[in-house]
Amino acid sequence: MGIRMRSILVMGILGFLAIGVLGFSSYRLSMKSALEEAKIKSDIVMNYAMATREYTRVAQSPLVRQLVEPDRFYPEIMSGFATSRGIYEEFEKTFPGYIFKGATLDPLHPSNKADAQEVQIIQKFIDNPDLKADEGRLVKNGQEVFYTATPFTVMNKNCLICHGDPADAPKDQIEIYGDTNGYWWEMDEVVAAFIVYVPVADAIASAKTMSLTLVLYGAGGIVVMLVIIGWFLNRDVVTPIVRLAERAEDFSLGENLDDPIDKNATGEVGVLAQSIERLRISLNKLMQRNR
């Protein structure tokens, strides 16, 4: 293999390795950026949901309880779970794919029932009492999402009015939800997790596309660069060296000793040409003495 091909091969391998590293780094950075953006969005939604729930618990529900009879129960204005669920059913109409759920192990309302993945998240909070939040990626309803979760621990005795002994629950609640599910909660027990799901499939696809585009453009640039380098090598290095090698072969046979070497080449090739020219002159003088 000639010097030209070896040089192009080495530079090509190094160039494509560099493009591969650049593409992988670009993908990782794009993915990190996409997930950071998803986390920011999920935190905003979660904070809004928690603010809504806290307002319902602190201001709205106590006032309603003062205004209605003890056995009356209006979940839309008295239940933090129902209020949050109703608000985000409206929110999802504008932002499809965004989900807020009060995932509960044993809920009053069936839609709050935790699925298998959510049960694992709640169990993580149960097993780790000091854990205040959890986040990660998973596939939900066929699409990849980023989730943020916070535990719901029974910290207020008012919760036990509706979720303790069903005999103590408002009669309206029993008529709406029955007396089987959503009861017998205990103080300091983790019974649910508030979870926000933010779709990231499009962001991940965009990161992959960006990285692939970068690799393709980089590969095209490498090919063009190799062609240009090959042309310069052929013109300024390979062809002059081949010509000098041919002249040196002639001199070794005692041929063309009267034809001077072209010394227009520069750099190392020029130095080599000058050395072979001096060799030609020396050989020519030696041959003339021996005639």
From TrEMBL:
Residue ranges of every copy of the HAMP domain listed in the record: 235-288
Presence of keyword Chloroplast: no
CDD domains in the record: HAMP
Keyword terms, alphabetized: Membrane, Transmembrane, Transmembrane helix
Biological processes annotated in GO: signal transduction
Any Gene Ontology CC annotation: membrane
SMART domains on file: HAMP
Domain of life: Bacteria
Segments crossing the lipid bilayer: 214-233
Pfam families the UniProt entry points to: HAMP, Tll0287-like
Protein name: DUF3365 domain-containing protein
Organism name: Pelovirga terrestris
Origin organism lineage: Bacteria, Pseudomonadati, Thermodesulfobacteriota, Desulfuromonadia, Geobacterales
